[in-house]
Amino acid sequence: MKDLIKNFLYTGVGLVALASEKVQSVVDDLVEQGKLSQEEGKKIVDDFFKTSESKREELENRIKKMTENLTGKFDFFSKEDVDSVCDRLEELEDKLTESEPVKAAKAAVSNVAEEVVETVKAVKKNVRKKVEGI
Length: 134
Hints:
mainly alpha; 2 domains; 4 helices; elongated
């Protein structure tokens, strides 16, 4: 959403810059042709820039109000909210991995794994003996 608004504003700024160059060019041509005096040309350009500036401020205020209006209608999470939840999750993960039941479960799994390895070795040994005996 922010990127869309930024692109919209940048496009507006680009259009104003292009229009400014065009107005300046047309006024310069009119001054060269003697249809406008230097003073009149300067006044036209200055008026254009003042009008452009006030319209830009008006547009920015409208966009700001629209953005505030939109964000007010939705429950967006702030960066601080997300950071807070992430911190709490990390604390819970730490507590879980350090808890006694988890440690006990890890030890039990480790013991069972060792027993399985020993059983597999014994089965292999028995199978080899039977295969060699055939």
